[in-house]
Amino acid sequence: MLASPRAAALDAADLVARRTRRRIAACALALVALVLVVAAGLVLGVRDVSLPVVWDALTAPVAGNVDHQVIAGQRVPRALVGIAAGLALGVAGAVIQGVTRNPIADPGLLGLNSGASFAVVCAVWLLGLTAPSQFVWFAFLGAAAAAALVFSIGSGQPVKLALVGATVTALITPLITLVLLRDQQAFNLYRFWAVGSLTGRGLETLTVVLPFVVVGTVLAAGLAHRLNMLALGDDVARGLGQNVGVTRALAGLVIVLLAGSATSLAGPIALVGLAVPHAARRLVGTDYRWVLGLSAILGPVMLLGADVIGRLVLPNSELEAGVVAAALGAPVLVAVARGRKVMGV
Hints:
Helix content is about 80%, strand content about 0%.
């Protein structure tokens, strides 16, 4: 017996309500996870600090107290940098995958990491810059230049963007190696920066980059509806009244702002921009209004979680967050590569 139109409408409304509740629950759990990893980052490390001492350091710091100095001078800035960089990487990865319709796309695929790296080594080699707050602008500009080159040559076509990005990376990498072989100081600084880390990034560096993260995030939120239509295909998006070229141009601007900011802050962190959007889609579906929001939370969770794990795996030392994030994201890359959509079966 066929259901009445009224019953069908009620069933559809119930389905939407259950889906919304599930999405809200996923975002709430992600926020709880973010609070937990921030707390863990403040407490755990080479020098463990108890939660009451952390609270005192945040609310009533005592001059000369070593634990308070560690919390306020090192771990709080580190947590804030991790939140900003993780948010930027998560949202940038979601936008890249949406605009290219490529499930393995991340900032590294479009050559942003290599562009930022080349700019940093040139800044150290030619100008003698040594502090992250000094060469942060060059990392940002290098990432922006690489993205502009890739988007201008790739003409907004998903396959061409990936191919041009890989080509740009292949061309720039030997140039980076050439500079590093000529300059020992550049090699030493680049070795520390390129592995990807939250160590040594102070609030002065975050202050420089934060406006770009905010603007990029706001623009990404405004693109959510356009990305939903673009996921249906260019022809369908045009039929629905969307200017596909404008969408891709705006997406390119968002990618430059967010990925460039994250790379300049924490170095070329691998696979966060790949793994986070996939996790978000598993939890909230394919609606980019939810995917972008959840990616903005899961990005800091993954990056700060990697940072905390890196402090614990080596006694009296640390493993850089970029190394741990790559280890966490690698299984996701393998799972995606084995998926039917990538393999074309």
